[in-house]
Design brief:
Blueprint lengths: L4 E5 L6 H11 L10 E5 L5 H8 L5 E2 L18 H7 L3 E4 L2 H7 L3 H14 L2 E6 L7 E2 L2 E2 H10 L5 H4 L3 E4 L13 H19 L1 H6 L1 E5 L7 H5 L6 E4 L6 H8 L15
Parallel strand pairs: 1-2, 1-10, 2-3, 4-5, 5-8, 8-9, 9-10
Antiparallel strand pairs: 6-7
Helix pairs in contact: 1-2, 1-11, 6-8
The structure holds 2-phosphoglycolic acid.
Length: about 260
């Protein structure tokens, strides 16, 4: 069984003091060896102090976004090459909030993915159903189109190293709950699409995360699904107690409850 990947997406929350205080509370409770990767994506200005504090720990400090270009006249943007030089190994790209609020297109996200891979930073590429809601025969074909477009030009040998994430927009943020059936189905269909485009081997190696209303009470059931390799957590990850609880969840072998009853 693959070890899980657990990513906290703090979005536009926590100033430097709050981020540093959070780390102080969790540093001596970080799990060792249970997860393949765990990390926090803070606001950009908190990356450096958090990197300094976590240098000798397995906790990764992750970018929430990066530009398509490495430098130049792009006011307000963040260079992924400079993130790499600072010691950042992962960057989230194409989160549904970037698509919906900041109108990022698949073409822009694709440029960012290429810039990140060339800089040696692993993209965590988010897909959802919002851009192209084309449902054919009950299947979510919109996700596939996003996937093909955002990975365009990535050499096949590098696709397995990119982390993909399925984030149905109806499950993200306040007032929503995780639709666990949709979570597994979305991740499974993304894996099947990777198999069609890049072959079965890469599809079995690529890591696919689910994001949307993950919390300490549902993480175990979500992670028991065969095609879900990890989770992206927003709200619940802002609380240090919940964050540690989720990092230390018991990795289940079987689903203990029917999906729709969580
Ligand atoms: P949420 O956010 O856990 O607050 O629903 C998830 C995400 O946007 O990645």
């Amino acid at each position: 069984m693959k070890k899980p990947i657990i990513i906290a997406n703090w979005k536009m929350n926590k100033n430097v003091d709050q981020a540093v205080n959070f780390l102080r509370q969790v540093m001596d409770q970080l799990p060792d060896g249970k997860t393949e990767l765990f990390g926090i994506a803070p606001q950009a200005f908190a990356i450096y102090p958090m990197l300094e504090m976590t240098k000798h720990t397995p906790l990764q400090i992750i970018g929430q976004n990066a530009a398509t270009k490495y430098d130049g006249a792009y006011t307000g943007e963040i260079s992924v090459r400079d993130l790499a030089e600072m010691g950042v190994n992962y960057v989230m790209l194409g989160h549904s909030e970037r698509r919906r609020i900041f109108k990022e297109t698949n073409a822009t996200i694709n440029e960012k993915v290429l810039a990140a891979t060339h800089a040696g930073v692993t993209p965590i590429v988010c897909t959802n159903e919002e851009q192209e809601p084309v449902v054919i025969d009950g299947h979510i074909h919109y996700t596939f189109r996003q996937l093909r477009n955002v990975l365009h030009g990535v050499p096949t040998s590098q696709v397995k190293d990119i982390i993909l994430s399925f984030e149905p927009s109806g499950s993200i943020g306040y007032g929503h709950t995780a639709d666990l059936d949709l979570a597994e189905r979305g991740c499974r269909e993304i894996r099947q699409e990777v198999a069609r485009n890049y072959g079965e081997l890469i599809a079995s190696q690529v890591r696919i995360l689910y994001g949307g209303s993950v919390n300490p009470s549902n993480i175990q059931t979500i992670m028991s699904q065969p095609d879900i390799d990890g989770v992206l957590i927003g709200r619940a990850s802002l609380d240090p107690v919940k964050f540690i609880e989720m990092l230390n969840f018991q990795h289940p072998k079987v689903t203990s409850m029917p999906l729709n009853q969580i």
